[in-house]
Amino acid sequence: MSTSSKILPLRAVLFMFFISLIATLGSLFFSEVMEFIPCSMCWYQRIFMYPLVLIFLVNLLYPDDTLFKYAFPVAFTGFAFSVYHNLLMFGIIPEKIVPCIQGVPCSTRYIDWFGFITIPFLSLMAYGVIIITLILSYKGVLKNEK
Question: Is the pLDDT of residue 15 over 90?
Fold first, then answer.
């Protein structure tokens, strides 16, 4: 059994911190500056993205071997919501089974860059990059520089 520490590499944690920070600031920009009203699924994704900024920041300040244990379930849950939201946006899931019963419909496209980049797609990419970086770091593929 390996006794090596599971403290994730500093650069990987810093990268994940910036990804989650950009995603958080982007969602705040869209809602507070652009005045796009978030739908229910957007709120669920925000609920899981915003704490990741603090989790990664705390781990940057006080590195320990528990980051994966706390960050992965949060990121994976947000990823699952964003997958569901993207399936809805691209018409794979019918709108009838969407939990958006009041307010803005979850299929509303506030942005549509290049025909496929929507706000839920940006969320999916952010969660995906964070999850891949977490797994690669945890498995030791990404290592600290000496």
Answer: yes
Q: Which amino acid is at 124?
A: L
Which residues touch 2 (CB under 8 Å, ≥6 apart)?
A: none
Give 106's contacts (C-beta < 8 A, 6+ positions apart). Answer: 39, 40, 41, 42, 85, 88, 89, 95, 98, 99, 100
Q: What angle do CA 79, 81, 86 make, to 5 degrees?
A: 90
CA distance 141 to 44: 31
Instruction: Write phi, then psi, for 115 (nearest 5 degrees).
Output: 80, -5
Residue 79 contacts residue 134 (beta carbons within 8 Å): no
8 vs 60: CA distance, rounded Å: 10
Give this prediction's pTM.
0.88
Share of the chain above pLDDT 70, in %: 91
Q: Which DSSP state fits 37? A: P
